[in-house]
Design brief:
The chain has 10 helices and 12 strands. The chain is of the alpha/beta class. The chain has a 5-stranded parallel sheet with strand order 2-1-3-4-5, sandwiched between helices. It has a 4-stranded mixed sheet with strand order 8-7-6-12. Helix 2 runs parallel beside helix 3.
Length: about 250
């Protein structure tokens, strides 16, 4: 997560960074500026996820800075940090994500981070990405994976849902159809193997005798990250899980 922090008072900027660091996940990047014009230049060079902006600053105030940054990156989360309440309407008109009255503290920052207007995307670390929140989607290096059969995608979704557990072909058949379609099931299994191998995701899908499973260590998955407690994944979940299918149930505890 990349975060921009701007305040023309150095001590306030240091305090803000210290408090924000307590809330954001480990590995987050911070870009701190006393000069708002330098901050604007940085926003043009790097895709920023969240910007904490003081409002009353010389040369260009926080409201003006926010407008310029949003022109560069419309989906950025702007959180204003100010000693004054009278700018709230301006912030609302800019569709800001949050508004914090100084002095800042961890509690105020956490409340705004937990209610971001634009959820932060989880940066992929593996070549195959699986999105379960909302509709189920499979991507290879950010590009949607196209299976030959729609049922192949649903079969793969079921294996993703089972989180690496080996599933017997009889169970798979029962999930996808009420009657016996084991011959067609073999076509789906072959389709998954061929499709994933063609996009370089070898070894993700495994078939052994009468069982199938996925290697979860070779997949980036929002649902898996949620269960690990990744705060970015937790913020992505809006109560919708593999919406195009009738069988999935996500335990959000």
């Amino acid at each position: 997560m990349k975060t921009l922090l701007v305040d023309d008072e150095e001590l306030q900027l240091i305090r803000l960074k210290n408090e924000v660091e307590k809330v954001l996940p480990e590995g987050s990047e911070f870009f701190c500026f006393i000069n708002p014009l330098q901050a604007l230049e940085k926003a043009g060079e790097t895709k920023i996820d969240i910007a904490f902006l003081d409002i009353e600053m010389p040369v260009i105030n926080g409201i003006q800075l926010a407008k310029k940054i949003k022109a560069i990156n419309p989906k950025i989360n702007i959180i204003f940090v100010t000693a004054y309440e009278n700018y709230a309407i301006n912030a609302y008109n800019l569709h800001a994500s949050g508004y914090i009255i100084k002095p800042v503290n961890e509690s105020k920052i956490r409340q705004e981070i937990d209610n971001l207007r634009y959820p932060i995307e989880i940066l992929p670390t593996k070549s195959l990405q699986v999105k379960c929140f909302g509709n189920f989607e499979v991507l290879s290096n950010g590009i949607p994976v196209k299976f030959q059969y729609s049922k192949s995608k649903e079969l793969f979704a079921y294996l993703i849902d089972r989180e690496g557990a080996a599933i017997n072909v009889n169970e798979l058949n029962a999930v996808l159809w009420e009657e016996d379609h084991k011959s067609y099931l073999r076509n789906l299994i072959a389709d998954i193997q061929t499709t994933l191998n063609s996009c370089g995701a070898n070894g993700v899908f495994i078939k052994r005798r009468s069982e199938c499973f996925v290697d979860v260590d070779k997949i980036d998955c929002d649902a898996y990250e949620y269960k690990k407690g990744n705060p970015d994944a937790i913020r992505l979940y809006r109560g919708e899980y593999m919406m195009q299918y009738s069988w999935p149930i996500f335990d959000a505890k």
